[in-house]
Structure formats: C-alpha cells, structure tokens
Amino acid sequence: MLRIQSLSSFYGNIQALRGISLHVGYGEIVALLGANGAGKTTLLNSICGLITSKKGNVLFKDHDIINLTPEKIVRLGISQVPEGRQLFGELSVLDNLILGAYLRRKKGKKEVNKSIETVFSIFPILSERQKQHAGTLSGGQQQMLAIGRALMSEPELLLLDEPSMGLAPKVVSEIFDVIKNLRKEQNTTILLVEQNARVALKVADRAYILETGRAVLEGSSEELLENKEVRRAYLGKGYKEIWE
Amino acid sequence: MPILDEKYETLNREEIKQLQLERLQVTLNRAYKNVAFYRNLFDKSNIIPEDITSLDDLAKIPFTTRENLIENQPYRMFAIPLREVVRLQSSSGTTREPIVVGYSKNDIEHWTNLMTRVLTAAGVTKDDIVQIAFDYGLFTGALGFHYGAERIGATVIPCSRLSVEKQINIMKNYRTTVLVCTPTFALHIANIMSEQGISPAGLSLRVGLFGSEPWSESVRKEIEDKFHIIALDNYGLSEVMGPGVSVECEHKNGLHIFEDHFIAEVIDPKTGERLPDGKAGELVLTTITKEAFPMIRYRTGDCTCLDHSVCKCGRTIVRMSRVSARTDDMIVIQGINIYPSQIEQILAEIEGTEPHYRIRVDRNGALDELEVWVEVSTNIFFDEIKKMSALEEEIQKKIEETFGLSIKVKLVEPGSIKKWKDGNTKN
Fold it and tell me: What CATH code is assigned to B330-412?
C-alpha cells in the first residue's frame, strides 16, 4: 500500500531523514520506533505532505505522492493523528469530528453523519460526550477523539503519532485495543510512531527502528523483541557493554 | 511440491526490490556502525551508507573477499557483541584456513526457517525419516539440515562419522526416506551397496538432498539410477550462513535463491563488473537479515549464472544455475583453465569408469604436467591388457580434446582412491 524508497527530508540545511526505505502492506500494523529526534515524526510529516523539502520516492497505492499537497494526500486516503492530538479545545466533540470530514463536505450531510455514527460505534464514550468541549475530556478520551477525527476522512492508511503520549498505562492499553480493532473491524492499515516500544511491538506486525534519521533495524515484532539491541535500548533490559 | 513461505517465495519483482532495499539499508547502517572493517572500507571508497539509494547503487561498494575475513579472524567481522552470539561455526575448510562465523538467536531462527523451506521444496514432510550423513560439528551443513528437518516435524537421524556399512544398515533398518549428504558420499554408499548386493528396492529412500560441493548432471543421474530416488541440489556457504541460500525445486531448473535474505549478483571475476542474466561468472552475495555476521558483496568463488524468470513451481525469486565449479578449485595448466568437475563430466560419459578420480599436477620445470588417475569398474580391470590400454587412450583423447592439452592417464583399481573418509572430505 505504502512504499517509501530512500527518503531524505530537510529542515532548511538540517537533514532529518537519511535515506529511509520502508513499506506498509494492506491491512498491516507497522510501528516506527526510536528515541527522541530519531526522525519518526518527520517521517510521518513527510508522508502526509507537511514537509516539502525532501527527496526519494513515496508511493501510495502506486501513486507518487512525494510532491502532493496535504489536502490531495488526504483525499487519496491517508489521514494523520498528530502528536499531542491537536484538538480544538473550545469546540465540542461533535464539531471536532465534523471538521475531520472537511474535505468531504461537498458529499453532503448524510455521508458525514454516517461517518459520525461509525466513529461513535467505535468510541461510545464520544457519543455520550458529544456536546462537551473537547478540552474538558480526559487524556484518553482526547486521544480517542483525535483518532475519531482522523477516521472522518475515511482513510485507508492511518498515521498515528505517539498515541500513548502522556497517558496512564491502563489508558494506553485501552487505546491500543482500539487500534487493534480498527484493523479488524474497519480494515484500516496503520503506521504507528511510538516511543513505548513494548506496547507498540505488542500490536504491530512489523516494525522499523530509527536512529538519527536512519533505519537501523527492521523485522517482525517477534524478531525485534528477541533482538538484544532493542531490549537494551528500548525495553530497558540487559547490559550496555559492547565488547567482551 | 508445496512452497513453505508463499508470502516471501512468490513476491512480485517490485515487492522483492522494496524488501531488499529496506533490508540492505538497515544492514549497511549497522555494518558501518558496528564493524570496523566495513567502516574503513566505506570510508576509503568515500561512501556513506545513505549513498546507497537503490539496489543498483550496491555496485558502488567494494567486494568483501575471503582474504578480508581471514585478516579479521576470529571476531572482528561480528556486528553484535559476542555475548549475544548464540552459536559459532566455521567454514568446512575445503580451501585454506577456516573462517569463524557467528549467529544471533534471530539468525538461527532465520536459518532454521530457510532450511525448512529447502526441505519443503524437496517435498519433505513430517512423515519422513531424514538421515543426515554430514559431519556434525563446525561444518554448517549438518546442523542446518537438522534444525530444518526438526522444524518440519520429520524424524531426524543424525548420522555423523559412521562407516558406510553402518549408514547402509541404518538406511535399511530404520527405513530412511530422505538422505542428506555430499553427492560423492551418496555415490560411495551406492557403490558399496552394489558390492554387497543390496538392492535399492530394499530401501524406503525416496529423495536425496545433496550439496556442499559442485556435482554434475551425470553424477545426479547416476545417483538417481542407483538409489531410485529424486536427487536435488542445494547451495550455501558458511561465510553467509551455511546451506539454505538456495535450493532446487522438483523442476530441477536452477536453484531458487531466497531473496528476502540474500541479494545475489554475478560478476566477471576479472573486472568485477556485474553480468546480466544468463552470463556465467562469480556469485557475489550480500546478507540482508544477518545480525551477527553481515556480509556485504562477498565473493563466493562459485561460478554460476542468474535467471530472473518465474519458475514453473510458482516461485518468483531469482534462480542460479547449478554451481559448475569453484573459482579457487581451478587448475591452470600451460595457460589452460581446468575445473576438476569438467574432468568428472568427461569420465562420467565414458563407459567402464567410475566417477572417482584424482588429478595430479607435476610442476617440474617450466612445463606443468597433468596426470589423471581414474578408477575403473571391477569387470573391466581384470580383463585383458588390450582393453585397458584402449580405455586409457579413450580417456586421454577425450580430455585432450576438451582442453587442447596433452595429459597422462593412469587406470587404478576400484576403491583405491580414497576420496571419502566421511561425507565432507573432498580431494
């Protein structure tokens, strides 16, 4: 579905990605792991067109999308849940969702209402709180709203940036249950950025590990959980010495 | 015959290329970071890993040779700490010094999976009894097959270092269905069987997986005829993993290289240029999933050519022709290149000879002389002298015709050339 070849991205003179290649197959959950500053968010922002200074190939369903604007990319079926949710706190839950369907406004109210119903069926709590200001929701509920808003454009590929950020462990596991169900019930393909490697590897089929803008490991979640380097660096297990 | 990993053995070319590029870049990043040899190699050539943006760019990287590995013995080619290495093996030592190689837990898992693919391609199932007559030990062949066969759920008989007679007894009494060893050893078993009057009909054997040395089509035919089995080739080398790099399917039209783990190139051994499909040259392999011992553009010394067309079995992965020779087994006599397997091929076509032979090269003075000792079938040897000298002449003529070189031929008694001590020695 998504195929990236040797992607490099730049912030002015600073190179944030150094030739990254990855792919996401239909119906897969793929995780991007790595420390702060490894380039995970840059990679998501490069895919959805928020970063324009880049080279390489980004193919979505065989369309080259590297030079497309974010609106066009959303229309093709990619939707991003940004880091820190970025909700409109002063607006109601319902209005936040409707904004998510902005590009589909011409298709009529009926279509949009159908999507709202779908989102409410996935997140019943949002239905209960639909009149409430988004800013008054708990962290977990805000994350659900952010995902719900992204689903309003009916994406085939959902990009999730740090869904566990700032949430209590119990809430994190709820959110990840939702992610698993999205794939199962909505058939959504998911590319997930996470610092919490343990949780991410539990739901993802495969993962890539980024370090200073490069991919340094790749493999199935099972394999990566067995990899001592991953255990050392991201799961806090093992030891630090290299040569014995 | 079934395909074990449909997903990876039948990817389309675009998917294979994507996967290879991703895994190659990861391998390069890790090798550059963790292996001083590769960091120096890249730095000297003014390359950084991110310069490799496509599979074609791989050609920018210099080759890794056996000499490089020898210089960096025992552990300097390792990309992970020794504590994380769960197994050491070494090359079988057919040529000069052995090379120590290491495996991480994931490497062993991948290797097992690949060997399971190899055995599945040969039609081996959980109902089979697999007799592994390789040398268990530092040599990678035995344990590779052992793990794969166990993963399938077959019954494994580890038959290391047993006499031929014992191997035959086990094969007969335990009702072995699959034989794994070198082709030479298989032929040796067959010959002893016929000496002892044991007919293949008394065995349950149905398939053989032979490898670890080049063998010709005529040897294959001989093995198949003598055992009444299907004989399949498989390929690998310990420097990149062991067996499990590629395998023949039942169509016997080249060995399928597992491209989700290895990138194969064929080069002109003199210029180092990449050669197109169908052109024979030296096989160069890059590992793209190995954690402990990554190899980038390793010159295998094996001669083959590639074929990217889709096989009748449905596998889309590239095929290599059966290895015809090792570049380093090559003998140069008076400027003429001779591969021992070429002589084997000639001998196999001559009636009355057994494919057991010995090549002697006398390097006295400026002129090298080649002498071939050939075993003859029992029934001929005790016959009249005339017949023998006629046979000698025939062999001499055929070899001379092939190479355009005068040689000597000596006929010897059957069994007098001790080519085999166990399944893995080669003369």
Answer: 3.30.300.30
